[in-house]
Amino acid sequence: MSRPSPEHRPSTTSSGRPRRPLPGSGLAKGLAVTLRTMTRKTVTEQYPDAQPELPPRTRGVIGLFEENCTVCMLCARECPDWCIYIDSHKETVPAAAPGGRDRSRNVLDRFAIDFSLCMYCGICIEVCPFDALFWSPEFEYSETDIRDLTHERDKLREWMWTVPAPPALDPGAEEPKELVAAGKTADKLAAQQQTARQEAAQQDAPRATEPHADAQASAADAQASAADQQARAADEQARAAERPTRPMGDSKQQTDQPRTTSDQAQPTSDQPEQEGRS
Predict the structure, then answer these.
(1) CA separation for the pair 60, 97 (Å, rounded)
(2) I want to staple 64 with a disulfide (CB 3.0 to 4.6 A). Which of 35, 84, 156, 219 is the partner?
(3) Basic and acidic residues: which segments have biased composition (predicted)?
(4) What are the tens digits of pLDDT across the range 127-139?
(5) The Cα angle at residue 84 between residues 79 and 90, in degrees rounded to 5
(6) Binding site listing
(7) Residues annotated in the binding site for [4Fe-4S] cluster, as ranges?
(8) Are 116 and 149 in contact (CB under 8 A)?
(9) Domain match, 113 and 143 both
């Protein structure tokens, strides 16, 4: 049977008395650790030129996903430092269907976290039932004025862009209910947008054909007016052909001239009668 090593020896003797450590054993252990680390090469990261590689669940700063917040006030009530400030108001939402009842909902007005009081316990993130708060590994937000460490909702929303993606699920795991609901909502909105685009295209189609119809109507009017002019010209030509033409000698000037002597010498039919009566 092998003898147990000094590290695995029981702390008591066979008689039940506590075993006394050898004098200087603690110092020897410390020197052994020092000797082991002295032979290793030291690596110093030149911060801030070289950023440290932080684990994804590092507690750096808290980000707010405002769309998921329902102003339930759980985070503010559970915070041990009372460093979360929330203001809201209620508004009435009309009924979606006729005959239904109006609903009231809370609208977020202010969401602020005072990081000068926060102790980064993460209770607010754990108690949030709607996943509106997330940890971000960012830690470079020091300020010269302590009042600037109170981040309002706009600043908290900017921290959401630095939140790392969640780890991948197992191959046989079910898809989260939140993602399923979000996918259904996105598909519904996409269908509504496509329907609206189709309706707008149908409304714009008659408008697009109106200029062509106007051009065709104007061309038809021009052709009709040209045909009328041609008909008028033909009528005028026909009327001109039907009118009797005067000989070249029978002019008004010739009829107005005095009669010749031969015409004066011929007696009229009334002159003999007058001579016989006399």
Answers:
(1) 46
(2) 156
(3) 1-10, 233-245
(4) 999 999 999 999 9
(5) 115
(6) 69, 72, 75, 79, 118, 121, 124, 128
(7) 69, 72, 75, 79, 118, 121, 124, 128
(8) yes
(9) yes
